[in-house]
Amino acid sequence: MTADIVNLRRFRKQKQRAQKAADADANRARHGLSKAERTVLQAEQEQRRRALDGAERDAVTPVAANEAGFSRHAEHEYDDLDPGNVS
After folding, report:
1. Of the candidates 34, 11, 33, 30, the residue with the CA atom closest to the CA atom of residue 22
2. Residue range 6-21: average pLDDT?
3. What DSSP string runs through 9-33?
4. Can you list the positions of beta strands (E) in the chain?
5. Is the pTM of this model over 0.90?
């Protein structure tokens, strides 16, 4: 008639671990995304990134501007005009 000896500390810790695991599962279900949802979200983000990158304007460097025929100093553009010929 001997009873089994039970270590209450181990039992309590095991019960706490089980409760934490159940809570973690509930949180994952409530807040997490399924693989399909993550895939759709990543595809949408990639599409937005591509659209934004496609709309980005290239910076015009001074060398490229000169090659395109743009004057580097716009304020000197009209220096060649003779003010006496203006009517």
Report:
1. 30
2. 94
3. HHHHHHHHHHHHHHHHHHHHHHH--
4. none
5. no
5 band by pLDDT with thresholds 50, 70 and 90: confident
34 DSSP assignment = -
Is the Cβ–Cβ distance between 76 and 82 less than 8 Å? no
What is the C-alpha separation between 42 and 44, in angstroms, rounded? 5
Joined tokens for residue 28: 């994952």
Domain boundaries, the chain: 10-75
Q: Which residues contact 66 (CB under 8 A, 6 or more apart)?
A: 72
Maximum Cα interatomic distance, the chain, rounded to a whole number of Å:
127
pLDDT in tens, 28-84: 888 888 889 989 999 999 999 998 887 777 665 666 656 666 655 555 555 555 666
Q: How many CB atoms lie within 10 A of CB 56?
A: 7
